[in-house]
Amino acid sequence: LEAFFIENEPEKLSAMRNLKADRIYRFIMRDDRLFKVLEGSQYRNPKEIEKALRQARIVLVNAEEWEDYFKRRLQNKRVEKAELCRLCLLEGKITVLTEGNRIKYHNEYICERCAEDELKRELRFRFKSVAMFDQAKKLLERFKDLDKVLYAFDPRFDPTRHPEVP
Fold this sequence. Notes:
Blueprint: E1 2-5, E2 19-20, E3 23-30, E4 33-39, E5 42-44, H1 46-55, E6 58-60, H2 64-73, E7 79-81, H3 86-90, E8 93-94, E9 102-105, E10 108-111, H4 112-127, H5 133-143, H6 146-152
Parallel strand pairs: 6-7
Antiparallel strand pairs: 1-3, 2-8, 3-4, 4-5, 9-10
């Protein structure tokens, strides 16, 4: 499990957008207890980290086995579940996905910023230009599906089969 530590967190979970993590921890569990904690390539004392985790706001992502650990063992009442943008996590940022800000891409959801970045990347690759970005962005806001928008720029796209895409 990876944990992203943020000093000045927002009150509302949905306000977590493109926050840069101050520290990133990797937790290794053994026998239902915290065994090792890595910060970068340095090992940290699990007892010190547990103390910090008792006061921290914790957001869990698809980590059912960790929920019990954080709620019971650490007696932390601020444990929440949320869906996070995977592409932001790869950059060390945190964006909580909500119904309003998530975009479907392949078989997952990503945030609007990552969807726009991916759209620009695809337009540059296909056309060596991002001149159509504004029109593509309008389609992205309308459909909330990046695959559908990218298909509209495919040479095999048939507008008679998809009249909803102008």
